[in-house]
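Data availability (excerpt). All sequences and predicted token strings are deposited with the supplementary files. A representative entry, Histidine phosphatase family protein, is shown inline so that the format can be inspected without opening the archive.
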Amino acid sequence: MELNLVRHGEGEHTSNVPASLHKKDPHLTSAGKKEAEKLRHLYSLEEGDLLLASPLTRTLETASIWTKGSDCRRVTTPLVGPRMFPQLKN
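Structure token line:
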């Protein structure tokens, strides 16, 4: 059995640091979507594989792109967090 830990693709919260760090649930940037596509081609998932994802938008977007066309099992749980953003108080 292998255990692979993968972070999400580039998120909007890193596009204009430090001002962008206040975004509460940022999406992937276009670069982040390309990173997720690349991940799908480098590490294809198959039936019998399990993907655990946090409920953050950018993580779910990464997981959705990565698992496209795969029969792997997908589970969303906040237990694979924690969330470190936003760092700036509104």
